[in-house]
Amino acid sequence: MKLDIVSIFPEYFAPLEISLLGKARRAGLLDVAVHDLRQWAHDRHRTVDDTPYGGGPGMVMKPEPWGAALDAVAPGPELPRLVVPTPSGRPFTQATAAELAGEPWLLFACGRYEGIDSRVVADAATRMRVDEVSLGDFVLAGGEVAVLVMVEAIGRLLPGVLGNAESVADDSFAPGSMESLLEGPVYTKPPVWRDRAVPDVLLSGHHGAIARWRRDEALRRTARHRPELLARLDRDGLDARDRAV
Ligand code: ADE
């Protein structure tokens, strides 16, 4: 997968050199290029922002540098899918990550300040698919951290990136029978630590009982932390034993 990222802070993306994604890049599974937006700002101060029309606090990113940047990074005829992180976007979920992981080329545009002049997305949308996405109901100082989050969520789904393919299947929110349930607690050796024993069932070797226990724990954790997810599970998604938990 090819990833282009445009930002006024290219240094933000140094973490993409390390760990899982760094390894994926070195293995040729991910081709990442980070571009400094200011290279497309041509005045003496390389200005990328200006005051908002209509008044109000803060600054808005100017359309000219963004237009030039998107034209240069994606000149066509092949075009990427453009992803713009913004608190006013649609929610970015595991399903969004999975959908974007199926694309050959993604271009991320990191806004700062009060956002990017709205004509930039309108113009880009005439030639490429554009997704304005939000990580949640909170406001970051800019899109950079949001892009790091999305790139990690998408990158780990690419074939060959995770060593153990099963770990994706077991994730909270992964599609399947445990979809929309939070993952329950996990344990490793030693069997007793600070007088706390690992639940016996996990040492029993009884796969059916272990699967049942995991589902019960997932249901309990979901009820405690995300009751609205349980409410969303349609009645057919719960068996008699689930309802007893
Ligand atoms: N930029 C600023 N806040 C954001 C958020 N919550 N999600 C995505 N991008 C953002």
Automatic annotation (TrEMBL):
Domain tRNA methyltransferase TRMD/TRM10-type: 1-231
GO biological process terms on file: tRNA N1-guanine methylation
Positions contributing to S-adenosyl-L-methionine binding: G111, L135, G136, D137, F138, V139, L140
Places the protein is found: Cytoplasm
Catalytic activity, as annotated: guanosine(37) in tRNA + S-adenosyl-L-methionine = N(1)-methylguanosine(37) in tRNA + S-adenosyl-L-homocysteine + H(+)
InterPro entries attached to this UniProt entry: Alpha/beta_knot_MTases (IPR029028), tRNA_m1G_MeTrfase_C_sf (IPR023148), tRNA_m1G_MeTrfase_TrmD (IPR002649), tRNA_m1G_MTases_N (IPR029026), tRNA_MeTrfase_TRMD/TRM10 (IPR016009)
Catalytic activity, EC: 2.1.1.228
Single annotated GO MF: tRNA (guanine(37)-N1)-methyltransferase activity
Pfam families membership: tRNA_m1G_MT
UniProt keyword annotations, A-Z: Cytoplasm, Methyltransferase, S-adenosyl-L-methionine, Transferase, tRNA processing
GO cellular component: cytosol
Signal sequence extent: none
Origin superkingdom: Bacteria
Subunit architecture: Homodimer.
HAMAP family reported for this sequence: TrmD (MF_00605)
Role played: Specifically methylates guanosine-37 in various tRNAs.
Assigned protein family: Belongs to the RNA methyltransferase TrmD family.
UniProt-recorded name of the protein: tRNA (guanine-N(1)-)-methyltransferase
Source organism of the structure: Actinomadura rubteroloni
Gene encoding the protein: trmD
